[in-house]
Amino acid sequence: MQIENDWLPAVGAEFKKPYYRELYEFVKKEYATQVVYPPADEIFNALHLTPLNRVKVVILGQDPYHNHHQAMGLAFSVQPDVEDIPPSLINIFRELHDDVGCHMPATGDLTKWADQGVLLLNTVLTVRAHQAGSHQGHGWEQFTDAILKAVNEQDRAIVYMLWGSPAQSKAVMLDNPKHLVLKAPHPSPLSCYRGFFGCRHFSKCNEFLVSHGETPIDWQL
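and the corresponding C-alpha cells:
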C-alpha cells in the first residue's frame, strides 16, 4: 500500500495517525483471511494513475465493485476484459452518448480518463467479496477526505462530479472558488431517472475547463 508520486507529501501525514494504523492492520488481516477487492497492488490505482498536480476532474464513488474480477482501484471502472458491464457504468455511458455523443465503448476500463486527469476516487478503497459496504467505517473515509482536501487546495480549475447523496455530502469541504461542483443523482438503475440522465455533467465539465484555459477531457473510450 505504497504511494510514490506527489500524493505522498499531500497525504503522507495520514499514514502516521492512529486511525490509519488501525486501518492498515484491518485491511492486512482481511486480505490474509478473506477474498477482498481490488487486488492489493491496485488499491491506490486512482492516485498512481492521476498525480495530484494533474487532477482536472474528480468523480467520486462509494466502495469498489464486490463481484469477482471487476474492481481495479478506479471508481466505476472495471477490468478491461470484463464483458458484463455493471448497470451504473452502462448508465454513465448512456449519459455520455446523449450529452457529448460518445458511442458505447467495448470496455468498461476507465484508465484513459485517469490518464487525462480524472481522479476516479472511491470513498472506501477496499471491500470484501460479495459484501457491499463491508469495509466502511474502518478509516478509509477519513483517508479519502484527506485526498479531497488536498485537491480542494489546488489553485487551478477543477471539476467535481458528485453523484448520489453520499458523494454530495462531501460538498461541504469543497469550497475553493476556482473549482466547480456538479451534483446529480447516482447513475444506478434505482436513481438514474431522477436526474442523472440529462444532467450533462460531461459537457459542463469540459466547458468549464476550456473557459479556464485547460484542455478538455476526451471522454470517448
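(Above: one complete record from the training split.) The radius of gyration is 17 Å.
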